[in-house]
Amino acid sequence: MSGFDGHNVRFAGIAAAVPQQSEDNAELTSLSEKSKNEIINQVGIRYRHVAPTGVTAADLCEASAKPLLNELGWDPLEVGILVFVSQTPDHIVPGTATQLQNKIGLPQNSICLDLNQGCAGYVYGMSVIVGMMNSFGIQKGLMLVGDTITKMVSENDNSIYPIFADAGSATAFELDENAPRMVFGIGSRGADFEAIHVPYGGFRNPTSEESLRPQEVSEGVHRNLNQLAMNGQAVFTFGLSTVASEIGKLLKETQMDSADIDYLVLHQANQFLNDTIARKVGFPKQKTPSSLHDYGNTSCATVPVTMVSELSHQLRTKHLKLMLSGFGVGLSWGNVILETDKVACLPIIEV
């Protein structure tokens, strides 16, 4: 689906949090100097913030939400909907959104919704909360997007361990009949779900003694079947073909081009891939901010982390027209064109 609109909802503010603990890819003893050079200079990732045991995506989102509400001057009891987007919830049952409702102090009659989405999750979540707020007349809403994806990754998998990191975010929305429309382009190619997946540990393939046994997949790649596996080439091809095409399609449907957009904020997976996508759709490097060097691939949180770390001053002081693009797990994509106007934006929070 592409080209559907979100109306009457204003983007009010944003915050993001990362764990204090940071790892330096230049110091990974498991990598050769050649591999370190490729990851730092081509993939673009030097540092990654990694959540310690006991710190979850919900914790990072809560740490983002409370200061944001304070900055906005919102009483938590005014918030009528909370959408939590993550692939790393606190529990299988119940959902995490209800627990966050309690911790943040939202009213008991607020809508609480968990959304299992990865790299496209920020835009998917935005489409859900904006649509529900407009349809139901909800005055204020909070979208929490985050993952502790490193907890799914084998430390002995040199193909993806140096890429992934952890983060959480909070984005506030407010009903406003004068708000400029948001235009979404969203879709999935479910036939390719195995390109990024955890094969075992769900109800299709339950955890077993065999699934927990480490396997040597290739040189430098050791993991078990309960850990994340990624076909990097398939994801790269998906980004260059489908994602670039869908970005171009949304621009065409809205009768815009790169000159009309202040910034294109892409999912942070690979700097070379993002540079190539940006060139294909006509965006110069100065319009495509990157947070990869300092924060790595934080799954569904890469778009808000990039907005907060790279565009904080612009978001707080200017009227902006943005295009946000998330893509990956699913394989799914989510693009949105929206406008912000001197919104609340806090500095990156370390937890």
3D architecture notes:
The chain is an alpha/beta fold and 351 residues long. The chain has one domain (1-351): Peroxisomal Thiolase, Chain A, domain 1 (3-Layer(aba) Sandwich). 29% of the residues lie in helices and 27% in strands. It has nine helices and 18 strands. The chain has helices spanning 33-43, 57-72, 96-104, 121-136, 232-253, 271-280, 292-295, 302-310, 312-317, and strands spanning 2-6, 9-18, 22-24, 47-49, 81-85, 111-115, 140-148, 166-175, 182-188, 196-197, 215-218, 221-223, 229-230, 263-266, 319-328, 332-341, 344-345, 349-350. Strands 2, 5, 6, 7, 8, 17 and 18 form a seven-stranded mixed sheet that branches. A five-stranded mixed sheet has the order 1-9-16-15-14, with helices on both faces. β5 (81-85), α3 and β6 (111-115) form a beta-alpha-beta unit. It is globular, with a radius of gyration of 19 Å.
